Amino acid sequence: MNRKGFSWSVVLGLALLGFSRSVGWALNKGLSFPLLSSYTQSAFVKGTILAFEGFIGLFIPVLLGYYSDTLKSRHGRRRPFIMVGGLLAGIAALMIYTAYAMGVPLWGFALTLGFFYLSMHLYTAQYRALMPDTIESGQRGKASGVITLLEWAGNLFLFGLAGYLIAKAVAETGESEGIKALAQTPYLKVPFLVTAFFLIGAALFVYFIVKEPEAPEIEENESLKDYLKSIVENRDFLKFYAAQTLWWMSFEFIAIFLYGILAYILHGSASEENVKAVTSLGLYLMALFNVTVLLGALPGGLIYDKLGRRLSIILGGVIFALPQLWGWFITNQTEIVIALGIAGIGWGILMAASYPVIGDLLTHYEKEAFTGRYYGFFEATRSLPVLLAGIVGGAIVDLAGENYRILFPIGAILVLLAMPMIWHMRNLEVSKAESE
Predict the structure, then answer these.
(1) How many separate domains does the chain show?
(2) Which of 58, 165, 224, 420 has the most CB within a 10 Å radius?
């Protein structure tokens, strides 16, 4: 595969795409749970609907990532998927607002969310594969740090925007419940319009501006069966995918049920009124978490390239897990702020350090032509936790008498279980020759 070394224009183009996709996922994380609370109070029902994302992400990136590796097109292997997926995702974001504003029943609102998840995952693997396609192994930590920085800046932007609009709506309407106040004003449509603009705009930018390297000739293409079999047989890939599943499940426990956690800790229960009362606070806390993720992302990329893969991943994992252990004892807003702030730094290090791992393993095993399919599986192991966390987490909360606090220590245990898997990967460290 032909490359041009480290290109800032390519990295910034991918970072812009990552920013737009994060705005989209932040819209889902920030507003879907409180909007669903208008339909039902059941943690299991809301968690199951939000878990659609995980179910779709479990299959679509794997299949389309595999197909994109062998796509013969003058438009490239990845860009056609990015173009179509970005356009559909932008349209789907507008459909979510329209469905809620029109008062469609729960099943109709759930279907619009499902279409949004499908559209976003049409180009998930292709977006991920572009970085190792275009950046040499020894430079991927630096690239990952920049891309991760912009990805989480997208989350911060959307959460900050939504929090500002809710505060403005509360001031104008006098309504104490944030999401209810927002729904009574024209401001509710703004996050959806902004999200659609970024999703469509970034897809167009990458399609027309970012150039893919010449596709390699694949002499012995793996069948879909052989590709999945090779993952199970190769212990390095298997350990990494398993570890990633565990730490993303820990993250999703908190991300999916944050409003329920806040309502339970601060008000004693996660009733519809209490969830809507903490919506503004939840958005600001998500913004705070993303600020500290940004603080951890760039150092995480540098640590990955300079100090080693194992050290950077394990350091990030431990910093992310410790505040969750403390979470079982948290009783007030100040402690929540401190815990999420520390956890965000660890998560930023972990994200920047884990993103390049698959690309480096493919370099080591001389499978760089297959980045699409292996990053497709990479995304599946990020989507499976959404599916499991939504359903299992909701069931755990209901079985615990709607005690959302229990998700903190369970999440910490999952992260700590992942760390020995990373430590025992044989070929995680890049060789000196590969880094030059």
Answers:
(1) 1
(2) 165
